[in-house]
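DM between two lab members

TW: hey, do you still have the Smr domain-containing protein entry open?
JB: yeah, one sec
JB: this one, 195 aa:
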Amino acid sequence: MKLFEPRQPRRRPVTTDEVHLWQNVVGDVRPLPGRARPDPATAAPVPTPVASAPPPPGTAPARPSNPPPPPRRPSGGLPALDHGHAPGLDRRTAERMKRGELAIEAVLDLHGHIQDRAHAELHSFIDRAWAAGRRLVLVVTGKGQGGDGVLRRQVPRWLNQSPLRERVIGFSHARQHHGGEGALYVLVRRRRDTR
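TW: and the structure you got?
JB:
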């Protein structure tokens, strides 16, 4: 079990504008003994944005060095899935999935995985769930720093790519007690015997 230590917030100097604003808010309040109000003269100056020179006429704008790859379309003509939006799934089942009312039959925790390993683990996990006839599984991605974790963004994308898309009916953010926005309920398609 990993123990996480809380990160200390980064301290930055208070700007002159912030000091003036605060002084207006607390204008008639006396500070506690031993405390003083910030002095606007000692506050950091507000940085002035520097305007960049426009490019010479006739030149193309610079392209970003690493543009994001275009999203891959789901294969087999299946519609793309999004959180809580599962085309073809009946409304009652979709609502029960979103509310966390369906029984979770397996859990995959991707905390601490790098992208390549997480992708392989997800693929293997969904394949095993599909082969075993499991319907609802929980995939824990974590929220990442500031709620913008890489796996939190990537897992829905991977679920929309082949061959996972053919095995998945829908997904939705989990309820808070199952991980909230750092986890997904994934509804796995029923395995059809081909005889």
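TW: got it. Confidence is low (pLDDT under 50) at residues 63-74. DSSP finds four helices and four strands in the chain.
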